[in-house]
Specification:
The chain is an alpha/beta fold. The chain is built from seven helices and five strands. The longest helix is centred in the middle third of the chain and has 17 residues, at about 65-80.
Length: about 160
């Protein structure tokens, strides 16, 4: 079985702007993200991003906008020899009430665990909101809560100190 790091996007990978980030010009990768992802990859972790993108369900932007921005992110990381296995994101409005993929629910975590044969006991979900940690814990994945827009290198210390 594999081990994985599941990462929230806004505030962990890119700067949290307290607004919806869906345009490439607003997307800023945080300073030590590349270093942290390289360390995690070297330690044998698969890297997966799981994000809520309710702006789509609210009609503020389209799936195509998010896909374009994710393509931009993946290209930047690939230039650094970092491979992201998948980016899962929930498009639903938070008030629909019937969504199981919106964090703190765990459907996307469970999909990732099954698809990539991940052992949850060897894996972590790193996020900047309690809902990220809860989504991981519901699927048996340990959570690491970090401050939004802070050091990912510091947050990953429990993952690489073994």
């Amino acid at each position: 079985m594999n081990k994985a790091i599941l990462l929230d996007r806004d505030g962990v990978i890119n700067r949290e702007r307290n607004d919806y980030t869906f345009r490439i010009e607003d997307f800023e990768i945080l300073p030590d993200v590349v270093e942290a992802l390289k360390l995690l990859q070297k330690a044998g972790y698969l890297l997966i991003i799981i994000s809520n993108q309710s702006g789509i369900g609210r009609g503020l932007f389209k799936i195509e906008d998010t896909e374009k921005m994710h393509g931009h992110l993946l290209k930047k990381l690939e230039k650094e020899k970092i491979h992201i296995e998948e980016i899962y994101y929930c498009v639903h409005h938070p008030e629909t009430g019937s969504c199981l993929c919106r964090k703190p629910d765990s459907l996307h975590v469970e999909k990732a665990l099954a698809r990539f044969t991940i052992d949850p006991s060897l894996s972590y979900f790193i996020g900047d909101k309690e809902r990220d940690i809860l989504a991981g814990e519901k699927a048996g994945v340990k959570g690491i809560l970090m401050e939004s827009n802070s050091s990912l290198v510091k947050a990953i210390e429990p993952c690489i100190k073994k």
